Amino acid sequence: MIIETILKINPNAEVTVRGNDINTCEIEWLNGTTPIPKADIEAQFTAVEFDTAMEDLRTKRNRLLSDTDHYALSDQTLSDDMRTYRQSLRDITNGLTTVADVEAVVFPTKPTS
């Protein structure tokens, strides 16, 4: 997560990291990359954890939407239950602000058609 956090702060950073603990790891800044203080990196951990959790949530949500795309083809009529299900999936990320919020998400139950 250290490298992901560094790249969130500076997407152009060139760096190698040895170790997983911000307090004991060795960070080598390459090709003139301006070093970022470890305290600044650590301060961004929560944001990176949230971004990762949201990415995982969106991946699952997108897969579930994809699994029902065939119901939404132009030659199909969506049932009200399927329309509600798909809208619930699209809205599932609304209002989430913490990793705990993301972890508490309950996906809707897919209707039979």
Care to describe what's here?
The protein is mainly α. The chain has 2 domains: 2-33, no CATH class; 45-103. The protein is 48% helix and 7% strand. The chain contains 5 helices and 2 strands. Strands 1-2 form a two-stranded antiparallel ribbon. A hairpin with a 7-residue loop joins strand 1 and strand 2. The mean pLDDT is 93.
What's the alpha carbon Rg, rounded to whole Å?
Answer: 20 Å
Number of helices: 5
Proportion of beta-strand residues: 5-15%
| Distance between the ends | 41 Å
Sketch the major β-sheet.
2 strands, antiparallel
H/E topology pattern: HEEHHHH
Overall number of strands: 2
Give the proportion of residues in helices.
Answer: 40-55%
Tally of domains: 2
How would you describe the shape? elongated
Q: What structural category do the secondary elements indicate?
A: mainly alpha
Strand order of the largest sheet: 1-2
Task: Report the mean per-residue pLDDT as an integer.
Answer: 93
User: Unreliable runs, pLDDT <50, ≥5 residues?
Assistant: none
